[in-house]
Amino acid sequence: MSVDGPTRTFRRQGRVVVVGASLAGLRAAETLREEGFTGALTMIGDEPHGPYDRPPLSKQVLLGKTPADGTALPRRRAIDAEWRLGVAATGLDLTEKRVRLADGQEVGFDRLLIATGTRARPWPRDAEADLDGVFVLRTSDDAARLDQRLAARPRRVLVIGAGFTGSEVASACRERGLEVTVAERGPAPLVGALGGVIGAIAAELQREHGVDLRCCITVTALEGDPAGRLRRAHLSDGTALDVDVAVIALGAMRNTEWLAGSGLGAGPRGVACDAGCRAFDVHGIVTDDIFVAGDVARSPHPLFGYQFLSLEHWGNAVAQAETAAHNMISAGPDRRPHLWVPAFWSAQFGVNIKSVGVPPMGEEIAVTQGSLAEHRFAAAYGFQGRVIAAVSFDHARWIDFYRERIESAAPFPPDFTGVDRPPGGVRPVPADFPDPALPTHGPTVTLSGYSPSDRRVTFTPARA
Amino acid sequence: MTSGTLLHQITDYANRADPYPLYAELRRTPVARQDDGVYTVSTYWEINSLLHDPRLSSDARNRVPLADGSLSPDPEEDAALPPSFIRLDPPEHDRMRRLATRPFGPPNCPRRIHDMRGELARMVSDLIDGFEGREQADIVDDFAYPFPVMVICNLLGVPHQDETRFHGWADTIVSALDPSPAEGAAERQRVAQQARTELGRYLAGLIEEHRRTPGHDMLSALATDHGPDGRMSQLELITTAVLLLIAGHETTVNLIANGALTLLRHPEVLGRLREDPDLAVPLVEELLRYEPPVQLLPQRTALADVDVAGTLIPKGSPIWLMLASGNRDPRRFPDADRFDPGRRDNQHLGFGSGIHYCFGAPLARLEAQIALTELARRLVNPRLVEDPPPYRQNPVLRGPRHLPVSFDGLTA
Asked: Does A397 touch chain B (CB under 8 A)?
């Protein structure tokens, strides 16, 4: 009762502020209400729009199949919140428990959820970034502008960066019948996320679909005409390309600047938090009223050696928001850890790509089903003798099996005999990540508990 | 009681009307080895994970012969026709299913099912109009059977007037799916294979006609279409057509009949559906959980030793996935034996999961939604004449054989 009392009072009449009105913020708000929070709820978002879904922006929206303003997130329930949209949070006072807003106002809270996500990394030189024809793709406004420009049929589109966003943009351009050049600093598309073996397949896909793919190359300058319109791009191999449109797809930056000086452990890699989504302060002391979820969060994961993982995954945003919201209104023993196994998907060049686990931790990769040559396969990544991740191309229905392999630390190379064995047998090869940066291995951890919705960690000390 | 006798009780016709208490008992041993070497898996998470496990094969050719073959029938074995994709593993399965999907669903035909809405509603109205002037109808013979048959005929391009011809063959083939040990099981298999061959011959003739003069139906598309995977061979086409024709209606009949029965047993839900047709969507999902038309999948084989919930299933063992039992697993669904159309997080196993996930699911859903909504709306004061009604023999495709319902008239 002594523990429960304050929690119960807070549930009834506390004040929760959610900064970030996108996927994680919305799902957290819904979970708060779902689980019986009846206090005051304020949603703060820097975009003027209500919460919308981003995955379609680089797919259906760029194909002209869905309007950019047609991806509003479905609501699971009414959340009865005060919305402060179109106004960014600019500061946080931990002592007074107040969020400062760009319009000069302040909002007080008892508990705060930080879900400010990421933004597109801009082209580094402002003058070039400002040229008419240079785009990024993160928001629905970005997608609307780019879709409009693609509909005007530019002669050639340059996509800078061949990660998932860049590759999806290139795919959409080809589907619209536009000429497209992709410039990638690394040796292959998707190489940072999935490694060189899969990157080589992604490169084949792009070239088969008519993309002018150029790897191991950077764009040194974007050149405009006197009217400020993009005309040409200069590449590090000394060549130049005439282009009307350039899409900057250089990854994302975490929106943590507004927390500078607040005393929270926030920086370019995100806001550090514990497994229960409680933010750390700069001293590494866990706060009890500040929670964090979604792309901006960095949390330790026992399956991956307690490394702090920051994930830009749709499913992570939802799961972490639900956990954070639950923990915000629960007394200590009722709180749960966020133990989501990282997973993401992409659709490009007619292929459905799905991944689970943390591929970049993988040292080796082994194709376990299907065939690389046909671009239809499942492959497992190995790390220190266990399965750490898996990826599938048009083989998504097997992904649950691989997630279970990861969760149970199944041995690598995979030892199972299954359907659809690859023609040459299962043979591990180096996964070929450009910068492995492998973590040290800690004690082993297993996930236990009957129901995946009720997970707990069992700690098993390392053998001497 | 040993679990072996428990499985025999489940397949025993005497328990057909309510096998759920037996499933509950079976779940006490999530993975149970039966007397004849069959492994039953009866709990939700275990079934679900095996449905995604590449170490399980659907291809009967991977099975080690049982001491007693009676519990392991496979009407597709040794038949003149090659196995349909439901009985194949990847990559052959994937190729066949991709080819079959091209004229049926996304990405090539994303609106095919949606665009059938009007046609389905008309068929349903016509059938219910046929109840005019009567005080009683058999919801199976007068409604739940003829409706899906008309639908699959139109979709495939099979003349509906041939129904009397293929009905007998379909019945024979489906009755051989019954894995219950019984007198004359071998004879039943032989007769079923013959029926499958005859149905195949009949469909081969149709396919030839459609090839010459293609229409907008699936058989025409399959016979003439040329996608990135090429085209099905003649034998593949026939075997797929047999599968789609049979699976296209033998399961939906039970979904609709089980649905009508469940609604009549829960008049308050029936009343809500009458007021709010939107309830049909979650209602059908709950039906698929609560009374799934496919109760179990008796046709998987372990390709390797597989450890499931602490039990090792040896390589070559036949595995039965007890879908209907998993659907009532209280560790997955709170209050699992309660019929609750408002249930959330209803990831039931009614259509299976994984690569063999029911091909016709979108169509079956729509058929059941429209059929049940119209029944609820138009029958005035409907009542069950018999409860439980007489059931079909088959424990795999479980549903009432007849469902006599009396009513006080029809609304327009």
From this structure: yes
